[in-house]
Design goal:
With 326 residues, the chain is of the alpha+beta class. Helix content is 24%, strand content 33%. It has a domain of 217 residues.
Length: 326
């Protein structure tokens, strides 16, 4: 996948970690990772409505480096995981979140009561083909592709302020969420928890990853398997009748320690293990697989670790609920 004349590729048996983002642990609290805006919305009512639960998955990451006008790049996709795995994670994470809210002493409004409201009838949801999962290309300083999955119990819907959203997300969904809260006299919460699978670094800031490429001129890129809850793309949007909209969002990586698979595959081998990319038009054609590389995850380990990540995020959000008890 790389120009062999300009890049040496090598795999080292032991991963030497020189620097990593802070990891989640019992000694940490929500203040170490979350920021809140208008938190007073959370002490308005004792009842909580979970109007959606969005599971974001990074399935492709890329990074580049340039020195002396020469540029190198690395793009990796998540392999070994199927759409059914993502759906299973979303269903289990949603159930775990409901239990965490109940454990905080708040009442969870039932789905039946939620769906019976006039506001819910006005909620514009995303309709997906049975064989597809929702995906969005979101580019910041490096290329990333996300897939967003909702539990089967709640159709996927987006508000215009969410970091990952349908490009056609209607402003009317804000009004619908507000109407639901007003009608049920409760706080509406819509979590978005996004999981990344890779730590990419470039241009001399290499962390000594398991798979690295070095260009003759000194530009460097490295990749290390790492599961973490990503900042800026993980937030808990909420609304209450008394205060309006607010949010609690992650501002620092929450690393989830554990092995979920660390085998790198290229070319035809990569194509044989890539399933969730069928949701992406750019990967649908199967062309240029010689230029594709993926990190092959072990499905049971991956699902277990991702669910652990959702539980960890929910734990921190529960601490925020404790802080603002009605």
């Amino acid at each position: 996948m790389f120009d062999k004349r300009g890049i040496f590729l090598y795999v080292i048996a032991a991963i030497l970690i020189l620097s990593r983002p802070a990891s989640a642990g019992d000694e940490k609290t929500w203040k170490d990772f979350f920021d809140t805006k208008k938190p007073g919305t959370l002490d308005d009512e004792k009842r909580i409505i979970v109007a959606g639960y969005h599971c974001g998955f990074t399935i492709q990451q890329g990074v580049s480096a340039s020195v002396g006008g020469k540029k190198i790049a690395m793009n990796l996709m998540l392999g070994g995981i199927k759409k059914e795995d993502l759906q299973e994670i979303a269903d289990n994470a949603y159930v775990a979140f409901l239990e965490q809210i109940k454990a905080s002493g708040r009442e969870v409004v039932s789905l039946e009561e939620l769906k019976a409201t006039k506001g819910y009838a006005k909620l514009d949801t995303t309709v997906l083909a049975p064989d597809k999962v929702f995906s969005v290309q979101y580019t910041v300083s490096q290329s990333r592709t996300y897939v967003v999955v909702s539990p089967k119990a709640i159709p996927l819907s987006f508000a215009v302020t969410e970091p990952l959203k349908d490009a056609t997300s209607p402003v009317g969904n804000f009004k619908a969420i507000a109407a639901i809260a007003d009608e049920l006299k409760a706080v509406v919460v819509v979590p978005l928890v996004t999981i990344d699978f890779l730590n990419l670094e470039s241009s001399g800031h290499s962390a000594g990853g398991a798979y690295s490429g070095t260009e003759y001129t000194g530009a460097k890129i490295s990749a290390e398997p790492m599961m973490y809850i990503g900042p800026a793309t993980t937030q808990y949007l909420f609304y209450s009748p008394g205060y309006g909209f607010g949010s609690a969002y992650v501002e620092k990586n929450i690393v989830i320690e554990g092995d979920f698979g660390n085998k790198f595959a290229e070319g035809d081998d990569a194509m044989n293990h890539f399933d969730i990319g069928s949701a992406l038009i750019s990967f649908d054609t199967g062309k240029n697989w010689a230029d594709k590389m993926l990190l092959l995850a072990d499905p049971p380990k991956y699902k277990q670790l991702v669910l652990q990540a959702h539980v960890q995020a929910g734990k921190y959000f529960g601490q925020i609920l404790d802080k603002y008890k009605p």
